[in-house]
Amino acid sequence: MNLLSFKSSLQVDDIISYAELVAAEGVNLQRGMNFKIKPQYSIFLMSLRKGAPYEDEFDKATNTLIYEGHDAPKNECLDPKNSDQPLNSKNGTLTENGKFFTAAHAFKQGIISEAHKVKVYEKLKDGIWCYKGYFNLIDAKIVFTGKRKVFKYFLQPVEIKKFKEKYYDIHTRLIPSEVKIEVWKRDKGRCVICGSTENLHYDHELPYSKGGTSLSAKNVRILCMKHNLKKSNKILSIIPVY
Fold it and tell me: In CATH, what is the architecture of 3-172?
């Protein structure tokens, strides 16, 4: 696929390369927290992989992504992993932690009427990412871990349609990260039909709209765009028209 077309075609659960991620956003992302990288939204890069630098997690019970704030840069702190995550930089300006923390509390306290929008990309392995869609930033806390204070940001997933610059929440069909990782390993990062390694998507074998679950790897598989579209056309062809 032409990288320039990715900006308009990216869908939740798409599996993309880092180059395609950059093409989708039109900017080279060098850090995990990117506040208002575009006027309408911010971006989080996250990972649930073992050994990831930050303890991001997804709470299935509340359908909430809990994203950990980031450490002070090494040029400002001798031991970032054993120091409190900073709200302000040394010159007094807000860090990325501080910007997101302020935005979350502005919504929580009713200062702003709509939660700040954050697009999230999850790292599956080196060079391979999954687009997880838009999230509402609904809360933020400073948590003591036993040795230092870290920021925790609470986000709930939404599917967003844009109309006259307003955003409307619909529902979520997000596939949990552990299911994605299991499916990626099982399907060997290839389309299960043709073996393609390009333009991949996570697909519900029984569609979510028809009651298919996102919670089991048995109902999730990897398809390339060609076969994902073929499946969609078959589903549409059997829907009765009244």
Answer: Roll (2.30)
